[in-house]
Amino acid sequence: MQIKCENIKYIYNPKDPNSYYALDDISLEIEKGDFVAIVGKTGSGKSTLIQTFNGLILPTSGYSQVEYFYITSDKKLFKSKIKNLSKQEQIDNKKQYMLRKKVGMVFQFPEYQLFAETVLKDVMFGPRNFKVPEEEAKELSKKALSEVGISEEYYEKSPFELSGGEKRRVAIAGILASNPDILILDEPTAGLDPDGKKDLIKLIKEIHESGKTVILVTHDMDVVMECASKVVVLNDAKLMKICTPEELFNGDDFETFALEIPTFYKFKKMLIEKGYKKDISSINDFDSLMGVLGEKHE
Questions:
Q1: Across all residues in the chain, what is the average pLDDT?
Q2: Quick check: 98 and 92 in contact, CB under 8 A?
Q3: What is the DSSP letter of 298?
Q4: Would strands 35-39 and 213-217 be described as parallel, antiparallel, or unpaired?
Q5: pTM, 2 dp
Q6: Which domains does the chain have, with CATH numbers?
Q7: How far is CA 280 from the centre of its chain?
């Protein structure tokens, strides 16, 4: 277990008559190396949940745990959780930047957060903020830019001169330069054209294959189908289910979560409704389906 949530509740404006639950009794575990998609309709609590993973939001009650780090607003609970840790781990728990170095978060439309004069300086901001010496930060940043497909000719350019997809890659490089163990992305493909989306999905899959745990919040079920090994479904601040993408899309309750069915499953459903005779219920990818469709004409 790399991340654990235990009975998390988060209330916005708790002392206000208009207070409401953004998270209501959420418990889950994420293993090291998982590729997790967090899905649900707008307002279901997705973005609130991921912000408890790096301490941007402290749960009103319950706690999130990332390895030996504990995130909670309950001081008594926090003390009880860290008391059996090593002295160094206790010290680390009181330094939020240590947690945020471990958990890198890429917000929706991260290109809007670019600010430096050059691409290289922008990417260096992360490691420099974590007290990495300048020359080391520069080398880490060059490595991260290379990993996301930004070549040396862009280093001295203004980030504002880049295309939308390039800006997003630079923003991701800014997180990767600090070498987090966990990468969280909030709606990473939002606003990108088809080619930009395809390239970004390929990049995110490569980052996962390098050994990092990847968590993404998305409304795009095609991305969930292509990338995720586990899906966390939220609805109205509650955890509805944890399952594989195949279990989610083939489930009888899918439509109750107000999610858009992936293109593949729309096509499969249409074939069945049009009277296709072969059993294709267990097929979950286009290549396998095309193979079965081809058999019809042999």
A1: 92
A2: yes
A3: -
A4: parallel
A5: 0.90
A6: 3-261 (3.40.50.300), 262-298 (no CATH)
A7: 31
CA separation for the pair 111, 121 (Å, rounded)? 14
Please state, in angstroms and as integers, the Cα–Cα distance from residue 91 to each residue in 51, 56, 70, 96, 158, following that order. Answer: 22, 19, 12, 10, 39
Instruction: State how far the Cα of 50 lies from the Cα of 41, in Å rounded to an integer.
Output: 15
Beta carbons within 8 Å of 24's beta carbon, 6+ residues apart: 9, 45, 236, 237, 238
Which tokens hold the place of 2? 């790399």
H helical segments located in the chain? 46-51, 75-82, 87-93, 96-102, 119-129, 134-147, 164-176, 194-209, 221-227, 245-250, 263-273, 286-295
The confidence band for 157, taking pLDDT boundaries of 50, 70 and 90, is very high
pLDDT band at residue 14, thresholds of 50, 70 and 90? confident
- Spatial distance between the Cα atoms of 232 and 28, rounded to a whole number of angstroms: 9
